[in-house]
Amino acid sequence: MDPYREYQDYVVASRLLVASGLSREILSLSQYARLRLRRLELAQAGRFAALEALDERLRFGVWSNPLRLKEFLRRTAQAPHWASPLAFEGLLFPEERARLRYPGQAGEYYLGWLRLPHLLMAPRAFEEALKEQEARAEALPLFLNAFHRVPG
Q1: How much is the pTM?
Q2: Hey, how many other C-beta atoms are within 10 angstroms of the C-beta on 75?
Q3: Could you tell me which of 6, 13, 21, 26 has the C-alpha nearest to residue 111?
Q4: Residues 6+ apart with CB under 8 A from 39
Q5: SS3 assignment for the chain
Q6: For residue range 126-143, what is the model confidence (pLDDT) as tens digits?
């Protein structure tokens, strides 16, 4: 996976947790990168208990792992951002929304992941949903302000 896309997914998940009152932390890109390297070290060393705690902090797999997504949905079920793609984009800053190709694009991408937990027992439908998500991911630009800073 593209590390910038991974970070963008992390930020969106973190903003949803912050908006829901379940977290106060959103790591900067450099902080995230350091912890992501630490995660790799822990995985290589087989330190799975420490890895699990770090995965929670990094929101690792929240969107793409159906079991983690199911838990994330349970924790954030009351968030008004789940109502529609445009409601979901309430998590974005106006300039971030302006970088999207059309209103609701990011919301469609993130809400598209919600189908996965329900399709676990239907392998063909699950595979089709993943293909659709891959196409949405390819079309979704990197919209975070962190990627569009202008020096000075």
Answers
A1: 0.93
A2: 14
A3: 13
A4: 51, 54, 55, 58, 60
A5: CCHHHHHHHHHHHHHHHHHCCCCCCCCCHHHHHHHHHHHHHHHHHCCHHHHHHHHHHHCCCCCCCHHHHHHHHHHHCCCHHHHCHHHHHHHCCHHHHHCCCCCCHHHHHHHHHHHHHHHCCCHHHHHHHHHHHHHHHHHCCCCCHHHCCCCC
A6: 999 999 999 999 999 999
| Phi, psi dihedral angles at 2 (to 5 degrees) | -60, 125
Are the beta carbons of 147 and 93 closer than 8 angstroms?
no
Give the distance from CA 83 to its chain's centroid: 17
Of the candidates 100, 91, 124, which has an alpha carbon nearest to the alpha carbon of residue 16? 91
